[in-house]
Amino acid sequence: MATATTAQGQQQDTQKMTSDAQRDALAALLRRPSKNSGSSSSSQRGPPQPPAPAEKVEEEDTAPPTQAPVGTPRPMPFDPSIPPPSIDPFAFPSAQDLPPAPRKRILTPTHLAHFLTSQTHTDLLSFLRQGAASIVGVQVPADVHTPEPSPAPAADESDGKRTGIQSALALLNTVASILASHPPHAQNQGGTLGSGSASAQGRFGNPTFRNFHAEISARSDELHSQFFHQLRDGEGDDEEEKRWKKVARAELKAYFDEAWGNARRIDYGSGMELNF
């Protein structure tokens, strides 16, 4: 009996140590690195540091330093003279390399700790920080205005001549038209529509949003095929090309559906921004 009790206690201690180690690792990853801290105090599992050339650019920067609030990630130094990494031309991989359907993968603290040490996390932060740093100190002229969106071009208009950005803008114009076809219903002062609790009607938004979201999701494949000719099935496509275009449209749909908000809760947050 004493032996069983001792073994059970050792197992609980081991589980506690594992949980504490995971928590400490996650805390170290989320902790903002201090500019004054030496190498001896830095965590071995901390966030990846900027490369040496970029650090040199930061030291030579003549701009006045700014103190970021505690907990704010330190911006990555930006050097316009350093070109971005090259992107290989897209090619359909072989059939055995079909990717799995996108799904939520970060569900536990352990998943999050793994993501924070991944190359995907490093690439994502680099993309965001480089974009943010590139516009620091850039003034917007007073005469700059935002024009009204132009009508979306027809599916066959300028096919193969539009840039990716132009195709994306044409797609967004159509999304705006779909949104206009689902005007919000009037709500009472309590923020709900008709009977039912606020949680049943939606946390923050108008229930009509669900109709817009449903149409966007149902037409995702159609819209991506319409405005991106590379994703459209062609008469000369073989079976492998058709299969891969279908996979590509399905992957885009996973992010496209999540880019506008949560249809069940009727809310919008940073996760939707990232999907967009």
Automatic annotation (TrEMBL):
**What Gene Ontology cellular-component terms does the record carry?**
cytoplasm; nucleus; protein phosphatase type 2A complex
* Disordered: annotated segments: 1-103, 142-162, 182-206
* GO BP terms, alphabetized: mitotic spindle organization
Location of the protein in the cell: Cytoplasm
Q: Where is the composition biased (Low complexity)?
A: 1-46
Q: Which Pfam families match?
A: PTPA
Keyword Isomerase annotated: yes
UniProt keyword Flavoprotein, yes or no: no
EC number(s): the record gives 5.2.1.8
SUPFAM superfamilies the record matches: PTPA-like
User: What does this chain do?
Assistant: PPIases accelerate the folding of proteins. It catalyzes the cis-trans isomerization of proline imidic peptide bonds in oligopeptides. Acts as a regulatory subunit for PP2A-like phosphatases modulating their activity or substrate specificity, probably by inducing a conformational change in the catalytic subunit, a direct target of the PPIase. Can reactivate inactive phosphatase PP2A-phosphatase methylesterase complexes (PP2Ai) in presence of ATP and Mg(2+) by dissociating the inactive form from the complex.
Question: This protein is called what?
Answer: Serine/threonine-protein phosphatase 2A activator
